[in-house]
Each structure stands twice: as C-alpha cells, then as structure tokens.
Amino acid sequence: MAFSDPELSDLAAQARENALHVCAHLFPNGYVAGRSFCVGNVYGDVGDSLKVNLVKGRFRDYADDTCHGDILNLVHLSSGADDWGRTKETLRRILRLPVPETFRNTNAAGPSKSTAELQAMALRIWRGTRNLRNTLGARYLLRRGIGRHLSNLAFDASCWWGWWQKTRPGEKGIQHTGRGPALIARFQDIHGRFAGIHRIYLSQDAGKADMPDPKMSLGDLYGAACRLQGRDVTVLFTTEAVEDGAAVATTLPELAVWAASSAGHLGEMDIPVSTRILLVGADNDKAGDAAFERLVERLQDRDGLIIIRARPVLKDWNEDLLKLGPLAVAARVRSFHQGLMQERVAA
C-alpha cells in the first residue's frame, strides 16, 4: 500500500487517534481489557486472539503471527483486503458514526499510561535489579545452555507484575498484580537510549513461572533491541527472543548480537547504518519468515546492506544449542556470512 493518496493518509491518522471508535464498529463481538481491544480475528469472531493497542493504534493476531500491523491494515483486512477504495469508504462511514452505546463508557484509557510513564516504571525496575551471578536468573540460563556473562541482562528477586483480566463490553477490566523472581533484559533504541525492559518470570526450580504469560514487556520496545554483546555491528545477528540471542552469543563471543522481544518486534527492529551484513536469526516458522520479510521490506533501499535469513536447524537457536551443541551452532552461524566477509576483504 502506498500512502501517496492524501485522503488515505488522513484517514489512517484519524483511525489511529480513534482506535476504540473504529474497533467498536468493526467488531461488535469485541471487548476492552486494559489498554487493548480484544476480538477473535480480523473477521470479528468471538474470542481474544486478536488484540489492538488502543494507545498506539496497532494490532496483532496472536493465533497468526503473520497477521499484524497498523489499524488501517486491520480495517483493510476486515473489508476483504482487495480494494483500498472499499477500505476508505468503510473508514469514512465509521468515523461519521457515534461510538456504540456499549463502548461509550468503557474506561479504555483508565489503566493505560503514556509511553513516558511506562518507560519510567521500567527504568525504576531496571535500577532495582542485581547482577545475574549466583541467582535464579543465572540458573534459568544455564538450563538453556547459556553460561557466559552477557550485557543488559540482570535479575530481580521480587519484580512487580500485572495483567488485566478480559471483560465484556462496557465493563472495566480486573487487574491482577503480584511479585516474583524474574530475568530482566534491558532494551535500547537505535541511539542507545533506554526504551524499556522485557521480563521472564521464573519458578523456584529455574523454569518459567506458572502464570498466564511469564514473559512481559514494559516500556516502548517498538524498534528497540536488547544488545547482548558486540560494539562492532558491521556484522549483526538478530533474534526474536532473548534466549535465542544469548544462545548464539554464547557460542560466538566475537559476534554482535541483538535480541528482540518477539517476532513482530524483530520485524520492526531499527538497524544501525554501519551494519553491512544483517543476519536475521528468527525462529524456523511462519512468524520468523514474516519477521524476515518485514525487515527486508523496510531495509531494501539501504545501500550496502546484505540481509540474510539465518535459519536454525530446529525450531530456534536455543533449541539448536541444547540439542546440537555449541560447536554446531557456531559453525552454522559462521556458514551464513564468512564467505561474504572474505569476498569483501578480497575486494
């Protein structure tokens, strides 16, 4: 889709600013939970797999990792995804209508906070962390074959968590909160500024905690990365999870490795201008392929950048490390770029 159409650009901006309004008309079976609008899928079926961030105006279908994007894309998909003229007409009609009564008093903004507030909360948590040495976080990584000290990872023995239980239209969500041990990853934007944190809550036996989702992000991780190692980013290896990045970094200490918090965020990661070879180590599945395709789409016009799909043998790089061993992982990673580097040196 090209935004050369000024009316479409204007409608997209209005859709983002009035995300609840748009979602309420598109999906009468949906409901608000916290700062998200939840529904089953782009066709509006009952469920909660598809979530729209009402603050940012972006959506993701967690049952289909290839289905995500701006709210304008959501309107397009729900309209049949074959005619942008129909999408514009749908948005014109929706934006002229009042908010449905069942959603009018929904406190979507109540539990949500501004990006600055979320980053401030994340920074307070990060400043309260301790070194990983001799902690449950270190044991968790060791169970995953990761024993090296890596940058931007720390531990919090009693880290705050909160999630919002889903409710029906017009009802406020119920917030569940608590504290527990967590491995904390610090994320930075492309300029090195603090962006937020990614938390992996742990059980006492150094596994993942038994909770609805033991992995939670806080802050603004859009475009950001956890820089696990390496200052020279001429060759940069990226992954869609901290554990996968740490697995690769463990086997190749000389390689710059950045991790995202999910496949969707990997596709949106900002890449340094000094990077010449980008190895995209996304998982070996459809979501990983979609992340790679999204990066190629975003970066295809950057001169001098080679983008390589660094596909693991098994599902992901951490599984490769555990089942195939560090030497096999190191050899496979090197196979993707060493020939290119030798050609560049020779040239």
Protein model, in words:
The structure is a single chain. With 347 residues, this protein is α+β, with helices and mostly antiparallel strands. It folds into three domains: 6-104, DNA Primase, Chain A (Alpha-Beta Complex); 113-219, Alpha-Beta Complex (DNA primase DNAg catalytic core, N-terminal domain); 225-347, Dna Topoisomerase Vi A Subunit, Chain: A, domain 2 (3-Layer(aba) Sandwich). 36% of the residues lie in helices and 23% in strands. The protein has twelve helices and 14 strands. The protein has helices at residues 6-17, 19-26, 71-78, 84-96, 101-104, 115-127, 136-143, 242-251, 263-267, 286-299, 317-324, 326-346, and strands at residues 31-33, 36-39, 50-53, 58-61, 68-70, 153-165, 174-188, 194-201, 215-219, 226-229, 235-239, 256-259, 277-280, 306-309. Strands 1-2-3-4-5 form a five-stranded antiparallel β-sheet. A hairpin with a 6-residue loop joins strand 4 and strand 5 (68-70). Helix 1 packs across helix 4 (84-96), helix 8 crosses helix 11 (317-324) and helix 8 crosses helix 12. The protein starts with 5 loop residues before the first helix and ends with a helix. Residues 107-112 have low confidence and may be disordered.
